[in-house]
Design brief:
The protein has 442 residues and is an alpha/beta fold. Strands 1, 2, 3, 4, 5, 6, 7 and 8 form an eight-stranded mixed sheet that branches. Helix 9 packs antiparallel against helix 14 and helix 13 packs across helix 14. The protein is flat, with a radius of gyration of 25 Å.
Length: 442
């Protein structure tokens, strides 16, 4: 019961922090039998929360043993059936105790359960997967080779964040094709051969790269993000995050190809994209603002105005009440993250999960003191709803403000606006031409 309550609460927290969450590849997950999910690890403690809450079957986690010593997080880890991993780099921990953990993992899988592992070993903000540890492969091979009655399968799962440290950004959990684990001979300590563990780890690395975004350097990802925005701008419908990821994977492939075989072409398109982005920055617009003007209709404008009129009084109250907690969460994240992007959102979410309910209870307490308990209960029910309306109003206002700026730009500097639209089409055509060249290359 505690686990169900916590997963439901954490799911709500995720849905509030992220504007859009998508899950792709659910049909690839075995409905029963033992399964190990292996994931990339770009976003601190939020990564395990995603698989824990959004996987279609109950999942147990592995977490570093030091987490269990933290006051709140340790309790959460135990309540969510997390198993400890004892790492050499953690002071005072004995890696020999991992034999107990591995045995518990095997017992769990024997019962047909599922386990989630992060074989990179640590959360990070690097542009590519880090070398995988062999622990996941050793657990899988050890379980599959110890007389398990059912076939063990490993499902690679990629986590993709559009802006992982930004409130109301988007996130994708992308499941890949399952990998069947074949038994191997175990030694006297019930350990698989090193060669077999390394071979399976290499297989997992390949599978994870198919469901994640990887580049040799951050500059490549920055260029690719700009290229993807330009390529998709002007579309009538918002593309899925899975499609966005696949397009960026294709751009990475092209980037690496042209960097090796035709660096002058790559340098030319990079320069053109940077110039275009700088022109937009100078006039205070982004790529989608230009599209908003061309796609705006009288009906859309009227609906947006009516939405503003309806939400405004509720949004003002919700903003005034929740803004101190929102700002404090941001300050705490900046203070304690030490500029590590992979833990910023974790701290924001944890701080918000404490500060916002605290705000509601303080307001309810003041209402009870001044006006009685009936109004206090009503306030406690209404305040979360007011906070949500404040978020929706801010998002709608942001879209409308961007469209208004673009409309004013079209009215006052129409020729320059048309040039920007023409340049965007030209860059998109050039990207298509580069892709055709990549496709035709043997």
């Amino acid at each position: 019961m505690t686990r169900k309550f916590l997963t439901a609460l954490l799911t709500l927290v995720l849905r509030i922090f992220y504007h859009r969450i998508e899950i792709a590849g659910l049909e690839r997950i075995p409905k029963d039998g033992p399964v190990i999910f292996v994931l990339n690890h770009p976003n601190g403690l939020l990564d395990p929360v995603f698989i824990l809450c959004l996987a279609p079957r109950p999942v147990s986690l592995l977490g570093k043993s030091t987490l269990f010593k933290m006051p709140v997080i340790g309790w959460l880890a135990r309540a969510l059936d997390t198993l400890p991993v004892y790492r050499q780099q953690d002071k005072g921990e004995d890696p020999k105790r991992n034999k107990e953990t591995f045995q518990k993992c095997r017992e769990l899988l024997e019962r047909g359960g599922s386990l989630a592992l992060f074989p990179e070993g640590v959360s990070h903000s690097e542009p590519s997967l880090r070398p995988l540890k062999t622990g996941a492969a050793r657990i899988a091979l050890g379980a599959a080779s110890a007389g398990m009655k059912q076939s063990l399968q490993i499902v690679p799962a990629g986590l993709y964040y559009t802006a992982k440290a930004t409130f109301r950004s988007s996130a994708l959990l992308y499941f890949g094709a399952p990998i069947k684990v074949d038994p191997v001979p175990l030694d006297e300590h019930y350990e698989p051969p090193r060669e077999a563990a390394r071979e399976l780890s290499n297989c997992l690395d390949t599978a994870l790269r198919e469901v994640t975004l990887n580049a040799d350097q951050k500059q490549a990802l920055d260029t690719i993000a700009q290229a993807e925005e330009i390529f998709n701008a002007g579309g009538k419908h918002e593309s899925s995050l899975a499609s966005e990821l696949q397009l960026k994977q294709r751009f990475v492939e092209g980037y690496e190809f042209y960097r090796t075989h035709a660096p002058e072409k790559l340098a030319a398109i990079e320069s053109r994209i940077r110039r275009y982005a700088e022109q937009l920055r100078v006039v205070g617009l982004d790529v989608d603002d230009l599209s908003a003007v061309t796609q705006t209709t009288v009906g859309k404008t009227l609906r947006r105005v009516l939405t503003f009129v309806f939400l405004l009084p509720f949004a003002v109250v919700g903003t005034i009440i929740h803004y101190p907690a929102y700002r404090l969460a941001g300050v705490l994240a900046k203070q304690f993250s030490r500029n590590d992007d992979d833990v910023v959102s974790t701290i924001k979410v944890l701080a918000s999960a404490l500060l916002f309910p605290l705000t509601w209870f303080i307001c309810a307490g003041l209402c009870a003191w001044k006006f009685g308990w009936m109004l206090a209960v009503a306030a406690l029910i209404c305040l979360p709803f007011l906070g949500y309306l404040a978020i929706r109003f801010a998002e709608e206002f942001d879209h409308a403000w961007g469209a208004a700026k673009a409309l004013l730009f079209f009215v006052t500097r129409g020729y320059f606006a048309k040039r920007l639209l023409a340049e965007r089409r030209a860059i998109r055509n050039e990207l298509l031409a580069l892709n055709d060249g990549l496709t035709k290359t043997p």
